[in-house]
Amino acid sequence: MKYIILCAFAVMPVRTVINPAPGVGNADVKVLGTSNLHDWSMEDKDVACSVQFTYGAGKTLPVSLAAFTFSFPIHNLKSESSGMDSKAYDAMNAKTQGNIAFAASSSKIIPGANDQFTVNSSGNLTIAGVTKAVALTAACRVKADGSITCAGTYGLRMSDYQIKPPTYMLGTLRTGNKLTIDFAMTVRK
Questions:
Q1: How far is CA 110 from CA 39, 61, 120, 138, in A?
Q2: What is the third-level CATH fold of 2-187?
Q3: Per-residue pLDDT tens for 1-24?
Q4: Tell me, what DSSP letter sits at residue 78?
Q5: How many C-beta atoms lie closer than 10 Å to residue 52's C-beta?
Q6: What's the confidence (pLDDT) of residue 189?
Q7: d(C-alpha 176, C-alpha 166), whole Å
């Protein structure tokens, strides 16, 4: 069965888009959390990512996603407080486990209305040296210039990645175990 599918892709005209984003500022990851005093966030607007869409003949929407990865150093995540940043880096073992990374093992494109589609990707997310199988969903849209914007949200618990929720000010400030990761990127041809 695999050979039939591969043959079908081999005879279809293929156009690929690969988007390395370091320094471009069009890939953004935000980590949102809670504490007993207030909500908090950390963000990296310079995420290295690679996306490879495959298009059919004359199609403006992609028909498949052959590759999707992103990776960024933990130290690139920044909040409004350098003290909080330091605690977060320590909790995630940033000195020895330097990157947060995702690599899709399979992806499916679900066409939507007009210029919109959804991507469901299964793969491995690594945080603090711990790798877990996850499923990410992104809402995507093809813009007039042919670029594609994708955005999604993923919820997790720090404890799933063997991270002890940090405390601050001698334990007065305690972070919650649940996190939300928001990601957004623009893929250009």
A1: 34, 10, 8, 10
A2: Lipocalin (2.40.128)
A3: 222 222 222 233 333 444 332 223
A4: B
A5: 17
A6: 64
A7: 8
